[in-house]
Structures are given as C-alpha cells and as structure tokens.
Amino acid sequence: MTIESDSVSFDFEGKVEGYGSVFCSHIMSAVDGDRTRGVMSGEARTFLEDGTFITSPHMGTFKRNNSKIKVFFTDAVNNGVVNFVIWDIDIISKAVDVKYWEIDKAD
Questions:
Q1: Sign of torsion, CA 61 76 100 54?
Q2: How many CA atoms lie within 13 A of 10 on its CB side?
Q3: Which of 58, 59, 65, 79 has the smallest count of CB within 10 Å of its CB?
Q4: Of the candidates 37, 36, 40, 33, which has an alpha carbon nearest to the alpha carbon of residue 12?
Q5: Domain range enclosing 71
Q6: 87 burial class (0-12, 13-18, 19+ CB within 10 angstroms)?
C-alpha cells in the first residue's frame, strides 16, 4: 500500500479462476471527509495457462468499513470481454475475495 495525501494505491497479485495469475494496480481516491467511499481506477495484466497475455483497465467505486474495502468496477478485457467485478479486501490480513460476472462476451 502506498499512501498519498489524496489517495492510496494497492498492488495485488494472485490466481483468479478463468484468468490464471493476475497482477493489478489500483488507485483509490476518497470523495468524502472520513474516506469511507470514493472512486478507483487501475489496470490488470495476466498470463493464461497457454501463455496468452491479457490486459484490462479498471474503473469503479469503493466503500470502506474500518479495515475492509469493497470495490465495484467494470473491466474491458483486451479479448473483447466485459466483466462486472466485486472485490472484498481485508487490509489487515491482505486477503482479497474476487467475484466477477461476464456481462458482454468476446467478439
């Protein structure tokens, strides 16, 4: 985690079903004084099991409750797929639970 006066950034890596080993960087900027909600943007990179390189920008919002953050975003994968994604992040344990739903298929 990198903390700035107006934002915080996180780097994540881990296995995501259907996408293999995923590497992401996200920047979150609060829109309220107590920093419990705001906007996020980021980028993901992954290599599938067959070596295919996948990329996607991320744009969305977040809500924080103490040390837990819930992030909601869409991605636009370079293979044409669009997903709606929810991440549940536990800052203390550094655990992330990823759920996603494909809302538009590849061309």
A1: negative
A2: 16
A3: 65
A4: 40
A5: 2-104
A6: buried
What token pair was written down for 44?
A: 């993901």
Contacts 24+ apart (CB under 8 A), 33-40: 35/64, 36/63, 36/64, 36/65, 37/61, 37/62, 37/63, 37/64, 38/62, 40/71, 40/73
Q: pTM here?
A: 0.89
Alpha helices in the chain (DSSP H): none
Each residue of 76-107: pLDDT tens digit? Answer: 999 999 999 999 999 999 999 999 999 999 87
What is residue 48's predicted lDDT score, i.e. its pLDDT?
A: 85
Number of domains forming the structure of the chain: 1
Owner of token pair 């996408």: 19
1 vs 100: CA distance, rounded Å: 23
